[in-house]
Amino acid sequence: MPSVATRTTTLRQPAWSYLHLELYSATSFASTSARPPSTTARTGGMTSTPPASSRPGIIDLDAVTARLLLTRALSRHLGLAGSSIPMDILKLDGAQLWIRVPRQDLSCVMVALGAWEGPWEVTGGGGAAEKFDGNGGGGANEIAPGVTVAWRIRDKGNWLMGLLSSQMEQEVWNR
What we know:
It contains four helices and nine strands. The chain is an alpha+beta fold. α2 crosses α3.
């Protein structure tokens, strides 16, 4: 019987890291001086929250608005270097999104997104403020002027499947 050579490879430092984020209206929680309700999860001290439909102040957004708000947070805390960090939006579901960033930039991105609070209004090309409702303009989800939004980091990891499996685990136990 011929011998078969077996070769194994271990990926110790993946090129990408993944974040599960949620955008919420910080203004609705400012009066209570509390963040959105959360429960501590078993995975690394990260927190999980009830579904968006059961909480006030959660915003539905589209990919363009999400990218704009992510870039705004990165450029505010990291300047031009922050706005140049490559970032891919992998999935967008209401106010939640999953992004991919270079592994070496993960800690900088987490600090910038976690510390940022900013206005929902953005300046258009003519210098006037435009309101976004998550669907590209005024509509059923329109947000009042002066509303402040913030990013909440729900989970992080070097492997996308690890992020998704921890989310699925939380959905099973939070029902």
